[in-house]
From TrEMBL:
GO molecular function terms listed in the Swiss-Prot or TrEMBL record: GTP binding; GTPase activity; mitochondrial ribosome binding; translation elongation factor activity
The keyword Methyltransferase is assigned to this record: no
InterPro entries to which the protein is assigned, alphabetical: EF-4, EFG_III/V, EFG_V-like, EFTu-like_2, G_TR_CS, LepA_C_sf, LepA_CTD, LepA_IV
HAMAP family, sorted: LepA
Enzyme Commission number(s): 3.6.5.n1
Keywords noted in UniProt: Elongation factor, GTP-binding, Hydrolase, Membrane, Mitochondrion, Mitochondrion inner membrane, Nucleotide-binding, Protein biosynthesis
GO biological process, one term: positive regulation of translation
Membrane topology field: Peripheral membrane protein
PROSITE patterns: G_TR_1 (PS00301), G_TR_2 (PS51722)
Domain of life, per lineage: Eukaryota
Protein name: Translation factor GUF1 homolog, mitochondrial
Pfam families: EFG_C (PF00679), GTP_EFTU (PF00009), GTP_EFTU_D2 (PF03144), LepA_C (PF06421)
Residues given in the record as GTP binding sites: 127-134, 192-196, 246-249
């Protein structure tokens, strides 16, 4: 690292950090490593260049990039394998000489006692993807001297690859900035939030550490589905909202129209909205003063016993568990002993500090401040998000904490070849080390062998995980079509959760079934209204609201069954609106539903792996499509093969394999073209490996044609 630093010499801090970031990605294969904090440097390998492009079409409105996480790659941490000395020297002096620090790093700046709550502001930026959140964050970091000004106005920070390609921020981060306003220096903490509501759990926990937020809207595009969803989260958290119109440099920007939209949807006064261009720096100077004026300081009590919110955590190879904390009341000092309300376990504070943009250790953190904390915690499972920490033997009332989220989308993940099972297991273990929200169960399938059943918050969460698996661990995986959890209210009153068709109960004991539904928000040009309503109706949607944002844009709200949107709804929205529509949805709730289990039998033998749970009204069509697809891919055997779709034992669809014919290419399933191709190549290798269902031989390809995409 030293060598690189020297070579880079005068290059800006952020560029150096970007190099760290790039190298981080390449190292995942070998290290148990939190991706944000790995700084070992090596030259890029060809693997990086081989990594494939992502099918942008699958992520409707999900282009763009996040920023803050790259900033927290801790240059100092990699050098320093032991806990920092707990001296009272200024923080900067304790950093090793190789550490990357802003040129003007001023030790006095990090004397945290200088920032009482009235001089602290904690805020985040919420925006629809691509509206310029990362660019604005970069500008604010430059204005405050936290990073150097980047002459080309290009976004210099490298990112987790999947984040770059998908254009989403996955994990929350925070960065502290120091800003002079009217003769006083403020400590301003920008807390980054993931942009997508799939991660609303992370959005809300980060918002919890804030008192205000910037609601950033692209002045050309106007309000989009995610703007609405994120606004609701901020509104529910009682945050002061600073409306900001970005991209006013664009020729087709229409600030007046978008201000009107914001007034009608969010009730913000037109004169409240700042008009800026994060790209050209226009109006950037107004932003922090507006934050200082309009966002209230944190309201904690400096004299009360310390009460601390733990709102994020990650694992760092060198330092162990690093927690992001917001000090609600009182102060913390290095060397003190703290206790977790959740677990009752106590720890010594080994290191405290702020992220600005590297971790800078300080001896104290005071009321209202946001920073990091290192204790002797061994695993992130001890650092429970939403936990309250207090001084040892000085208990405080716990903060509300966060609801643990239940997984809402499940998918089977299998190695392409059984020999790769162990590698897959290790890769999944590593990834879940830093994303504890993914649930993992072993699963085995007749056709696909041993694998895992993983549970995710939502579709995007699943896609991101799958891509990280493939990109960072080079894992060749087969991902089955996503499914959602259902419930059965039994006659004896018990509520059973059904996470897979195998758990579908005997219907004679069931009073009613329930399925998860969401309220989806769709924003699109009005000429697509008819097609969009059609799409929603086909997806068993119920209209909740229809309103006009202005003369040309419609906002539609539909109650939609989650199982109808987990497969290709995003694609469909994109298709129907020629790419101009955006879609987002809120947390699912369970409602009564008429569910059935569809079995597929080959010459009278049920093939478990092909069973699905679905709505009664969809069973016929689905059964027919599966039977036909199987008939196309099952090669001729010595005898006729009868394929049947059955509910209980009633046959609702059938197809027959009669004559010998060439194996046709499997129907396309989700994913981008290169992934598909890779999969097809792999399948060719695996074709010889037939499975027996009763007396019928079934190839992996046949399974995939049905399992990889169920409808
Ligand atoms: N013309 C113009 N382009 C801008 C402006 N701000 C950002 N952009 C561009 O808009 C695109 C998206 O900006 P990002 O900052 O990456 O968007 P984002 O909201 O952070 O995206 P996510 O992190 O994925 O949510 C980039 O190509 C930026 O260069 C602006 O003020 N004017």
């Amino acid at each position: 690292m030293q060598r690189w630093t020297q070579q880079l010499g005068a290059v800006s801090t952020s560029r150096v950090l970007a190099c760290f970031r790039a190298s981080t990605l390449l190292h995942h294969h070998h290290h148990h490593q939190q991706m944000r904090h790995h700084v070992t440097l090596t030259a890029p390998t060809p693997r990086q260049s081989r990594l494939r492009a992502i099918d942008a079409a699958r992520a409707v409105g999900l282009a763009g990039r996040p920023t803050l996480r790259a900033l927290s790659s801790n240059a100092a941490g990699a050098q320093d394998h032991s806990p920092k000395p707990t001296t009272h020297e200024p923080a900067a002096a304790t950093l090793p000489p190789q550490a990357i620090t802003p040129k003007d790093l001023d030790p006095a700046r990090f004397d945290m006692a200088k920032y009482p709550p009235r001089l602290v502001r904690n805020f985040s930026i919420v925006a629809h993807i691509d509206h310029g959140k990362s660019t604005l964050a970069d500008r604010l970091l430059e204005v405050t001297g936290t990073i150097e000004r980047n002459k080309d106005n290009k976004q210099v920070l490298d990112k987790l690859q999947v984040e770059r390609e998908r254009g989403i921020t996955v994990k929350a981060q925070s960065v502290s900035m120091f800003y002079k306003n009217k003769g006083e220096t403020y400590l301003i903490n920008l807390i980054d939030t993931p942009g997508h509501v799939d991660f609303s759990y992370e959005v809300s926990r980060s918002l919890y550490a804030c008192q205000g937020c910037i609601l950033l809207v692209d002045a050309a595009q106007g309000i989009q589905a995610q703007t609405v969803a994120n606004f609701m989260l901020a509104f529910d958290s009682n945050l002061s909202i600073v409306p900001v119109l970005n991209k006013i440099d664009l020729l087709h920007a229409d600030a007046a129209r978008v201000t009107k939209q914001m007034q009608s949807v969010f009730g913000t006064e037109p004169e409240e909205a700042l008009r800026i261009s994060a790209k050209t720096n226009l109006g950037i100077d107004q932003v922090l003063p507006a934050i200082i004026d309009r966002v209230p300081p944190p309201s904690g009590n400096p004299d009360a016993p310390p009460k601390v919110l733990l709102f994020d955590s990650w694992y760092d190879d060198f330092r162990g568990v690093v927690c992001l904390i917001a000090v609600v009341d009182g102060s913390l000092k290095v060397g003190e002993k703290i206790t977790s309300v959740h677990s009752g376990l106590s720890y010594e504070i080994l290191e405290l500090g702020v992220v600005s943009p590297e971790r800078v250790s300080t001896t104290e953190l005071h009321t209202g401040q946001v920073g990091y904390l290192i204790t002797g915690m061994r695993s992130t499972s001890e650092a429970r998000i939403g936990d309250t920490l207090h001084l040892f033997q000085k208990p405080v009332e716990a903060l509300p904490g966060f609801k643990p989220v239940k997984p809402m989308v499940f998918a089977g993940v299998f190695p392409m070849e059984q020999a790769e099972f162990d590698d897959l297991r290790k890769a999944i273990e590593k990834l879940t080390l830093n994303d504890a929200s993914v649930t993992v169960h072993r699963e085995s399938s007749v056709a696909l062998g041993s694998g895992f059943r993983l549970g995710f918050h939502g579709m995007l969460h699943m896609d991101v995980f799958q891509q990280r698996l493939e990109q960072e661990y080079d894992a060749n995986v087969i991902v089955t079509s996503p499914s959602v959890p259902f419930r059965a209210e039994m006659r004896d009153g018990e509520i059973k959760t059904i996470e897979s068709p195998a758990e579908f109960p005997d219907t004679s004991f069931v009073k009613q079934f329930q399925e998860p539904v969401v309220i989806g928000t769709l924003v699109f040009p009005e000429e697509h209204l008819g097609a969009m309503i059609d799409l929603c109706q086909r997806s068993r949607g119920e209209q909740v609201d229809l309103s006009y944002l202005d003369e040309t844009r419609v906002m539609l709200k539909y109650r939609l069954p989650l199982c109808e949107i987990v497969t290709d709804f995003f694609d469909a929205v994109k298709g129907v609106t020629s790419g101009f529509g955006s879609f987002d949805y809120d947390e699912p709730t369970f409602v009564p539903s008429k569910l059935v289990k569809l079995d597929i039998a080959l010459n009278d033998v049920n093939c478990d792996a092909l069973s699905v749970i679905l709505h009664d009204s969809k069973a016929q069509e689905h059964a027919k499509s599966i039977c036909e697809r199987l008939a196309e891919t099952i090669s001729r055997q010595m005898f006729e093969v009868a394929i049947q779709g059955r509910i209980h034992s009633k046959v609702i669809a059938r197809a027959t394999v009669k004559a010998l014919r060439k194996n046709v290419t499997a129907k396309c399933y989700g994913g981008d073209v290169s992934r598909k191709k890779k999969l097809l190549d792999k399948q060719k290798e695996g074709k010889k490996k037939m499975k027996m269902i009763g007396s019928v031989e079934l190839s992996k390809e046949s399974f995939l044609s049905v399992i990889s995409k169920a409808r």
